[in-house]
Write a structure and sequence with these properties.
Layout lengths: L2 H4 L10 H50 L4 H21 L4
Amino acid sequence: MTTAEVGGWGDPGDDPPHEWERTRTRLEEAECALAGLVSENNELRAIVRRVREYAGHQRQYGTYIHNLGTAADRYAALRYFNTAAALERIIGDRR
């Protein structure tokens, strides 16, 4: 059993070279996995940002239609307000 397996603080030179190679390989695999998670996180943030922007555009368009003044326009604006609210609920911006 090597020092690395026991968890001791012995001389690293006591470990056989294949242990160092295995540790280096595992470290590289962990770095690749972490890089993949960071990339995936960035992609998900971009998706949420685009959904948030689309919800904002829906709300702005609904406000524009609502401000036209007639009852039919106010009713038609509900479609855009509801879409915006649903998108905001999906991404957690609204309860």
